TrEMBL record:
InterPro entries: NAD(P)-bd_dom (IPR016040), NAD(P)-bd_dom_sf (IPR036291), NmrA-type_oxidoreductase (IPR052718). It comes from the Bacteria. Residues 7-181 form the NAD(P)-binding domain. This is SDR family oxidoreductase. It comes from Hymenobacter aquaticus.
Length: 281
């Protein structure tokens, strides 16, 4: 059995390969990357695979039985890029595909959802047995701002009191590995989210508890929050996206209490306190 992972040098891809190597021989794992030199430290075969070059993708997928299609990071180009991978997988004879989609992709108000819906439709239309891994928010999307919040004296956002059911990348990577190496997942759609939900006020309180400093949560209008993010050097379009996704969280877009993720990985998801502690190290 050969298992290939797209985006293998990304933050999620690296974790998936690390955890896969604990379950299957490294010789059965293929890292699909734009620059194989950057995958030299992964300890598995690396093949050049560019989302924009269909012929190269087909060659890279030769002999692959199972494919994990980790969604592209290029928002706005994802649907086309993913379609190229799916078409190449069909031509290469891939027997199973798992795709990292978005939590509640079919109904999510997040602007990110449209491309995920398009890819889910393409996966289903491909005729290849599939599993949809609808990943919720990464806890790191928020804990990545912990040091900035401590330095600035407040945690900023636009999520109001919206509940966020995030999980760490390691949790989501473990779920992907469970599907790639397990049975009974064909045709399944998993809504993956953390066991426990929190508001950004509660996140700020946890940061305060662990640092011994008063770090309140400051809720901002979307436009103001986007302007702050832009002032930190984040491209304007992406800054507006981040702020709008926070606003969607205020209406429940990042909440899920089904606990499908913890059932899939066979353990509780990583607590917020643990993730905050890791970010503060």
């Amino acid at each position: 059995m050969s298992i290939a992972i797209t985006g293998a040098t990304g933050q999620l891809g690296r974790l998936v390969i690390e955890k896969l190597k604990a379950r299957v021989p490294a010789a059965q794992i293929v890292a699909l990357v734009r620059n194989p030199a950057k995958a030299a430290d992964l300890g598995v075969e690396a093949r050049e695979a560019d989302y924009t070059q269909p012929a190269a993708l087909e060659a890279a997928l030769a002999g692959v039985d199972t494919l994990l299609l980790i969604s592209s990071s290029e928002v706005g180009q994802r649907a086309t890029q993913h379609r190229n991978v799916i078409e190449a997988a069909k031509k290469a004879g891939v027997k199973r595909i798992a795709y990292t989609s978005l939590l509640h992709a079919d109904s999510s108000p997040l602007s990110l959802a449209e491309e995920h819906r398009a890819t889910e439709a393409d996966v289903k239309a491909s005729g290849i047995p599939y599993t949809l891994l609808r990943n919720g928010w990464y806890t790191e999307n928020y804990t990545g701002s912990v040091h900035g919040a401590v330095a600035g004296g407040a945690f900023l956002g636009s999520a109001k009191d919206g509940l966020i059911s995030s999980a760490t990348r390691a949790d989501f990577a473990e779920a992907a590995v469970a599907v790639l190496t397990g049975t009974g997942h064909e045709g399944q759609t998993y809504e993956l989210a953390g066991d426990d939900s929190y508001t950004l006020t509660e996140l700020a309180a946890e940061i305060s508890r662990q640092t011994g400093k008063d770090i309140p949560y400051k809720d901002l209008p979307v436009a103001d929050y986007a302007a702050v993010l832009s002032s930190f050097g984040i491209p304007e379009g992406f800054a507006h996206g981040l702020a709008s996704w926070d606003a969607d969280a205020a209406t429940g877009a990042l909440f899920d209490d089904s606990r499908q993720l913890s059932r899939l990985i066979g353990r509780p998801t990583t607590p917020l306190s643990t993730a905050v502690a890791a970010a503060l190290k």
